[in-house]
Amino acid sequence: IDSDSNDFVHLGYTDNNTPVDIFTPVVKADRRICLGNIEYHYFAGYSGGAKAIMPGVSTREAIQANHSRMVEEAAHAGNIITNPVRKDIEDAIKFIPIDFIVNVVLDEKKEIIKAVAGDYIDAHREGCRFLDSFYKIPFKEKADIVVTSIGGYPKDINLYQAQKALDNAKYAVKKAGIIILVASCREGLGEKTFEEWLLKAKDPEELIEKIKSNFKLGGHKAAAIAMVLQNAKVFLVSELNPKLVKDIFLEPFNDVQSALDYAYKEMGEDAKVILIPNGGSILPILEK
Questions:
Q1: Residues β-bridged to residue 139
Q2: Which of 10, 101, 241, 274 is most buried, by CB atoms within 10 Å?
């Protein structure tokens, strides 16, 4: 169903004071069957499940209230138990029950490798466990340099899309290390608000403070990049104008070898390197 944010019913508020404003036809439906795919989500933990309702058929105000919790420490990929964003999403369902879900897990070729169906919690968690067994990759030591990509065209047509690989790579890099993101970005930065926030900010810290006080869709991905920059430098190998790349707090390179050579120069010839292909799908997890 394609929702209209001007045609909604206000059903109440979640425990975190997020308005549960849902598209009218969904509220009036006799049965609600939610479809979706399960993959890692950089602040809701995982996609799928109740996300078909919140934010799927919610108003912009509701989405912004829910997503504003992305800055909290527990709001990160692969976390579902203590994740405040996911908890808020599922809290909304007490106002608008889901009868049944069908969720799938896809491989890098976008082919279905797992399907789950049934209760919106139980089936979803089963899918998350399968995703973890397939895409959560343990490693023993963080690297000085992480090289990653989103998986090539069409995923890397702009920085807005490629950001997901950058966010997953942050779990594998040492503090003050370097992430080399390889993404064509042939269509530029990709989203108007995202571009506006990046270009107008005086530094990454301003973006983080801005998202805390004035959450805005599009701006949230600019803030996500800023959060990565708190712990690591980002070298961007792309087709973007080098000045534009510098203006958004990243360091531009024309090819991977040049970026890697410079990274070795900064981190030392004995620097440890981790390569993460298909970085939008793979979640690196440090073994305890």
A1: 286
A2: 101
CB atoms within 10 A of CB 132: 15
Q: Tell me the per-residue pLDDT of 229-285, one tens digit each, with 9 for 90 and over.
A: 999 999 999 999 999 999 999 999 999 999 999 999 999 999 999 999 989 999 999
Cβ-based neighbour number of residue 50 at 10 Å: 23
CATH number given to 140-286 = 3.90.226.30
> Do 224 and 162 contact (CB within 8 A), yes or no?
no
SS3 per residue for 75-132: CCCCCCCCCHHHHHHHHHHHCCCCCEEEEEEECCCCCEEEEEEECCCHHHHHHHHHHH
With residues binned 3-state (H G I as helix, E B as strand, rest as coil), the percentages for the chain, rounded to 5, are 35, 25, 40
The structural domains of the chain, with segments of one domain joined by +, span 8-134, 140-286
Overall fold of domain 8-134: Rossmann fold (3.40.50)
Digit-coded pLDDT (tens) for 112-150? 999 999 999 999 999 999 999 999 999 999 999 999 999
Looking at residue 55, the DSSP 8-state letter turns out to be T
As a whole number, the mean pLDDT across the chain is 95
Q: What residues have CB less than 8 Å from 150, skipping those under 6 apart?
A: 156, 161, 162, 164, 165, 183, 278, 279, 280
- C-alpha dihedral over 228, 63, 187, 254, to 10 degrees? 0
